[in-house]
Every structure is written in structure tokens, then in C-alpha cells.
Amino acid sequence: MAVKTDIEIAREAKKKPIMEIGAKLGIPAEHLLPYGHDKAKIGQDFIKSLSGKKDGKLILVTAINPTPAGEGKTTTTVGLGDGLNRIGKKAVVCIREASLGPNFGMKGGAAGGGYAQVVPMEEMNLHFTGDFHAITSAHNLLSAMIDNHIYWGNSLDIDERRIVWRRVMDMNDRALRDIVVSLGGVSNGFPRQTGFDITVASEVMAILCLSNDLDDLQKRLGDIVVAYTRDKKAIYARDIKADGAMTVLLKDAMQPNLVQTLENNPAFVHGGPFANIAHGCNSVIATKTALKLGEYVVTEAGFGADLGAEKFFDIKCRKAGLKPSAAVIVATVRAMKMNGGVAKADLGAENVDAVKKGCPNLGRHIANVKGFGVPVVVAINHFFSDTDAEVAAVKAYVAEQGAEAILCKHWAHGSAGIEELAHKVVQLAEGPSNFAPLYPDDMGLFKKIETIAKRIYHADEVIADKAIRDQLKTWEAAGYGHLPICIAKTQYSFTTDPTVRGAPTGHTIPVREVRLSAGAGFIVAICGEIMTMPGLPKVPSAEVIRLNDQGFVEGLF
């Protein structure tokens, strides 16, 4: 019998009206702003009314470093949420929104897979409720207002060489990484060099994801540093008088989106920063709202635990005052074999030795997450080609690391295939969590970068030019020394070289650039050759995406 594709399964979903999903959480219909019949935004007044309620338990789902073999972190997040509901717990899933860039590039969507999906899948992976368009518009409004201020006399004395605010779009377009704007004569302004980042790397995206409410949002937007004067005095978005209009554009985008899983359980899908170039977590307002409404909240952090989980703990939890009760690390037998040196074409054949050889990558992530004081369990996301001996090898290795690995079949069987993991998560969450961030607020900025590099990546040293070190010292003197660090680097390796798999040691982390995200509340350290505007692959997915004769989207998954 042919295996159904993710999109075929999603189209067969028996969705309930979104008002019914809201009612399961105790959200009155009048506090839901519907976008069609199957998605809605939750009103700010209702969210404010929850402030006195007790929080549920927060569960993080993270993973090993991604490989072309696939890991299934979002699939496991959704499956675990369904599994917890299946065993009688009131659980809510919190995941991020999908960017158009990867959908038309190579990574694909962000709604889960198989029988562990969030629906409506096509809308979620395309325009959804328009949040990303609002973020793009707010970001570029600020860009336009900066250039307009200079055009009309530059009363703030902005040094055009020191404008640090770029433009964004939600698409992979390498041609826009470095550009010159305002060519064409006097009426078009003053020519200068700038560039585009992808929307998910925008500081506005990070601000929306880290803000508690609209007042906090506007304050953070005003705190954005957009440029400097000739004497290096910072110019803020509020100086340009852009923060009010930006807040207006983001008013609806700030409201969390409510959808449902295939098993009609509630899911909040809100925010979408990439964990390789931003902090990579679902929005604080969605997570905090879910914690007031559910006994358990299952959320994800992007890519491997070296990026997503570290930023979840050190940025999101630190800034939002969250305390996770347990963490799940997703791994696959196939990925272990790839880390053990097996080519993608050969993954179908049993190779226990390669599995064992590849397990140290998983072991490094287990140790790292444990280092934050959070109880850990490993979810082995099952593939049909996995053999009993290979699964046993992963379980044995994880046991040697002082943790437990549980085989999960949620892709094929939904919540019925992940009950064992759900029970284990409840057991861990009922026990103690001694969560603490990796470094204190008052540690120096460069020392924070070194701490992450050495303790999480197991690097020997961090390399940075004197100009970068001096810039960090300048920010410390300006009062930004307490901010956490957001490392931007390849997601494929603990190093900055995407081809180095496993659990390498003895490498260096080169810092190419540092950026101040004063509104979001962190410092970005760009390492290696990572790009904040990705490019399309040689054969992008966009080439095969189309509408079929029935009017359905084909090729998106």
C-alpha cells in the first residue's frame, strides 16, 4: 500500500470549527478573531485577563544537528502535544510560523508531518494570517523613514556611513545581500550602500516574539538603534518617530494565532525567527498565554540544541522569566548513520556500527541540555527502514549518557505512537528542574561569546578582530553589557564549517561581525560564513510548486 504524503494526510483532516478549539481552552468566541473557519487570533483583552492564573509546565522539544536524512522536530512537537492530550493531560502545542524563503527554497514547511501535523497546512506555510507581511512592512517603513529624514534635511545629523538598519523581505534572494540605494539623481536621495536580510532575521521579528504586550512592543520598537551621528551618538527609531506607526502595523500580528492538530487539539502558531541567524523560538506572548490555559505546553526551538535550545534558555527564558520543566531531544537512526559517515543514498541498509559512530553528536546535545539543569529524554523519531538492532544501539548509547531514549511512531500512528514518550515527559516534569542560564547577565559580552563557544560548541577559542572587540566594549560602556548573546552560525555542525559532523573538539569560532539588537534585547554575533539573507539552491522547490487541475497546491511538500 502506498504511503500517503503529508499534504494528502492534511487534506483528509476532519477539522473542527476554530471556535470549538478555542472553547476547549476556555476562550469565549467573542475573544477570537476568526480568519476563515479554521484559524483565529486571540484577543489582547482576553490574554490580559489571564494574568492571575497558575502556569502549566513548559516542555521544550529540540534536536540533534539537522542532516539531509531528516529529524522531525516539529513533527515530534505536534505528536507529543497530541500524546499528552491522549493520556488525559490538557496540553497546548506552541510552534513557529513558516517563512516563504525555505518553502520555495529547499527546507520545506514547518507544520509537522505524517499524522502529527498542524492544519490548515497549506495556509500556514504560505500567507497564513499575514503576520510576516506585517513585520516586513513595519521593518521597511522604518527603513523608508530613515532615508526620508536624511532627504529632508537630516536634522538629527545622521552619518550616512553609519546607518545600521537594513531592509528585509520574506524570500531567499542572494542578489539583495549587498546593494546601493538612491541612485538616479537628487530627487531619489543620497546614494549609499546597504542590503536586505530575510524577514525572519529582522529585529522587528525578534521584538514581536519577545514582547509581552503592545506597550512593551512599542517601547522595544522605539529602542531600535538605526544609525549613529558623526560623533557616534546612537539614533533610535523613536528619534525618527517611527515607533508609533510600526506598532499600528503590528497590532494584529501581535495577537497569537490559534489552529489545531489533526487530532483537533489546540496549537498556537506565532512568530518565526530562524535559530541559525536569530533566536529561533515561538513568541513569548503565545507561550505565556498557552501556559495559562493548559497543564502542559509543548514548544520547539529551531535547528539543533546547540543553536535553538541554547537561545531558548539563554534569551527567551531569561528575558520572559520562563522555567522549563523538561526537554526532549529528537534524533533519528538515519541521522546517526549520516553522522557516522554513511551517504544519504545508503541509509536504507542496516549499519549498526555507523549508528554507534554517529551517536556522539546526540551525546553532546544531551550533555549540553543537562548543563542548563533541565531533565532530558531522547525521542527516536521512527522511520520504516530502522532495524531493531539500530534502535537498540541508540537506546544503549543514551542510557550510557544517563538518559532514556524512547522509540516514537507518531508520524505513522499519531498520538497512539507516542504515548510512552508522553508518560515519560510527565514523569520528568513532575520532578525537579534546576534550570539556570549558561552565563550571568553581568558577564562581559566577549566572555559570553567565549562561554557559548567553549561550553556548547566545545571550541578551543573564539577569533575576533580588534574592531569587533572594541565594538563590544563600546556597547558595554553604552549600557548594553547585560544583554545576552545570539550566535548566528551554520546549523549543520557544532563548528562554523557545515561539513563537519559528529562531536568535534579543538576547533575555533571566528566572529565576522557583531550587531546590536537593542530593541529585541540581545547582541548578534555572526560567525563563519553564515548569511542573514539565504540564497536559493541550484534546483529550488519553487520549480515544482503549482496549482493542479483541481485547484490544489502541488509540490509544496
What descriptors fit this protein?
single chain; 557 residues; alpha/beta; Formyltetrahydrofolate synthetase, domain 3; twelve-stranded mixed beta sheet; four-stranded mixed beta sheet
What would your notes on this structure say?
By secondary structure, the chain is an alpha/beta fold. The protein has three domains: 302 residues, 3-Layer(aba) Sandwich (Rossmann fold); 119 residues, Domain 2, N(10)-formyltetrahydrofolate synthetase, CATH 3.30.1510; 79 residues, Formyltetrahydrofolate synthetase, domain 3. The chain contains 19 helices and 25 strands. Strands 1, 2, 3, 4, 5, 6, 14, 15, 16, 17, 18 and 19 form a twelve-stranded mixed β-sheet that branches. Strand 14 and strand 15 form a beta hairpin. Helix 4 packs across helix 17, helix 7 packs antiparallel against helix 10 and helix 9 packs antiparallel against helix 10. The mean pLDDT is 94.
